[in-house]
Amino acid sequence: MAFCRKINILYVITKLELGGAQKQLLSLIRGLDKERFNPYILTAYDGVLVDAAEEILGLRLIRCRFLDRPIRPIKDILALIFIYRFIKNNNIDIVHTHSSKAGIVGRLAAKVSGARIIIHTVHGWSFHDYQAGIAYYFYLFLEKLCAYFSNALIVVSQWDRKQALQRAVGRQDKYKLIRYAINYEEFKNKTAASQIRKEFALSEADLVVGMIACFKPQKSPLDFIKLASVIKKDLPGVKFILVGDGVLRKKVYALINKLNLKKQIILAGWRNDIGPILSCLDVFVLTSLWEGLPIVVLEAMVAGLPVVATDTGGISEVVLHGKTGYLVKPRDIQALRDRLKELLMKPYLRKEFAKLAISTLEPNEYSLDNVLKNTTQLYLDLFFMSKNA
Fold first, then answer.
1. CATH number of the domain that 207 lies in?
2. pLDDT tens, 263-283?
3. Is residue 1 part of a domain?
4. Is the overall model pTM greater than 0.85, yes or no?
């Protein structure tokens, strides 16, 4: 198939923090055929992964000081104008947005600018059950509006598609399921476990529980700390590693001090060596209040870990309750404690869960090749369809 010029793609994502959506997007751009596509990425001015984005050959990084996660009407309007001008001035063919805030602002800018193709990848919806009524319906309205003029909506879980269609967010034919990509080799190396344990002053005999998440309300890191507190009463020798950072940092530190957990909880901050971190754990925990499909759960399973997670979003599509892990209701600390304690006290059960967890995820479905093939084909189909329209 001949191309007279490269197809210009603008990716818009709120912030390049160390999250699943961000890591997936950068992996997609790295693997993109640069002979066919000319990629740009527009994001907030700062972020842990900004340097990683700048290192990608063929990618132009645009940092917008107006784009930010909190709702700030004046800055949001300025961000919309900034994105609008960039699209108009750079002959952008495809605008592909990621994350909730960028998904709204970016798609509105794309529509006003007359962009030929508008695509959004859903990494969890902007509306959820923990919002006040007005906020919930406001975000729902915005998602419906943007879905109306989007050419395609990519979801990473069946749950996201089901939730949207139940609320009339877009037509069914606009949705395409493309699972996250997992680098299986990165999470099969067990040799780094002893090094990580040594770094954190952990012995080989220590039982270690971990969670990797941004310190924000969605991930509910304070529940992880409360869980460590109740486990301490029965199993005082268990250690907890919390990887991440964010807006709840001060509350996290304060609660650790209040519950006297300095000896039990290790705060690791942001880390790029997620594979080695997971390799030193015995159980992985996630305390989220709402989700799409968190990639860290997939990574934990590939690393051979039993998972104890809250039953939200698409987690139940991959974690099989009672077979590869346990699912409990959000904020149910007692249920989290019971399930985690059972796994900590039964090493044979951890091994059974871990063995099945590794075999549960189909490598072809969760591969980068699959993501690249399906995403590229979607780009080409929509691009040539628009040219022939």
1. 3.40.50.2000
2. 999 999 999 899 999 999 999
3. no
4. yes
